[in-house]
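$ ./design --mode recover --in tokens.txt
reading tokens...
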């Protein structure tokens, strides 16, 4: 009788803790959203602006900052980046003459430091990966060997967002309504060609 009773207590405790952890992952809306806006097509791919928004009220990403990685759907390469850099070039031996910045299947990108020359910056870049609550961090990426239309470009998948002593879990890449931008004279709106969103949620501190 006594062991049945403690069994019930343990079951209750287990279901309680399951409830609270799934609660933390779902109904709490706090997240880091990565938005991938395709801005223009190029002869072999596209230029995108990638932005990470910190939608967490209390949690900052401290120095030495965030890292972002993903897996390409095919054999895409990174021709160039503005406002961030890749950590690894990988095997670009297929390329002669013009050599991509990165040919790895799973590139990792880090922010640039404050004080980066102005011609290597984009808006919201270059904070050494520090990302305070309610702020955003952006970089521009030129992707090659990618599709050159919205029926052939493939979404990057398996996103990972990492931060010092923080573990995040990212969901799938979603094709969403293209972002609308207002021109600086506020007269016109333009639109991204395609927009992909990835939502990452804080999982635990390490
Ligand atoms: C991410 O957080 C923002 C701000 O709280 C919220 O509006 C948005 O719905 C969240 N996204 C998801 C997928 O939960
Ligand atoms: C496909 O791209 C064209 C322009 O390149 C755009 O006008 C159209 O809305 C896009 N379609 C979708 C489904 O995103
Ligand atoms: C995609 O992310 C952006 C930036 O957080 C947000 O404004 C937009 O509503 C998101 N789209 C969808 C469909 O969640």
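writing sequence...
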């Amino acid at each position: 009788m006594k062991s049945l009773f403690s069994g019930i207590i343990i079951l209750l405790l287990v279901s309680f803790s399951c409830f609270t952890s799934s609660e933390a992952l779902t109904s709490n809306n706090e997240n880091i959203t990565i938005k991938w806006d395709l801005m223009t097509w190029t002869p072999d791919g596209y230029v995108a602006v990638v932005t990470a928004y910190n939608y967490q009220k209390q949690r900052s990403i401290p120095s030495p900052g965030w890292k972002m990685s993903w897996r390409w759907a095919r054999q895409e390469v990174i021709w160039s980046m503005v406002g961030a850099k890749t950590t690894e070039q990988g095997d670009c031996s297929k390329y002669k003459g013009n050599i991509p910045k990165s040919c790895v299947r799973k590139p990792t990108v880090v922010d640039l430091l404050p004080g980066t020359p102005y011609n290597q910056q984009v808006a919201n870049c270059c904070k050494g990966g520090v990302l305070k609550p309610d702020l955003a961090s952006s970089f521009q990426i030129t992707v090659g060997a990618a599709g050159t239309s919205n029926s052939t470009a493939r979404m990057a998948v398996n996103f990972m967002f990492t931060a010092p002593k923080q573990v995040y879990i990212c969901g799938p890449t979603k094709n969403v309504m293209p972002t609308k931008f207002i021109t600086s004279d506020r007269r016109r709106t333009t639109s991204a060609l395609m927009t992909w969103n990835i939502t990452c949620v804080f999982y635990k501190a390490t």
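exit 0
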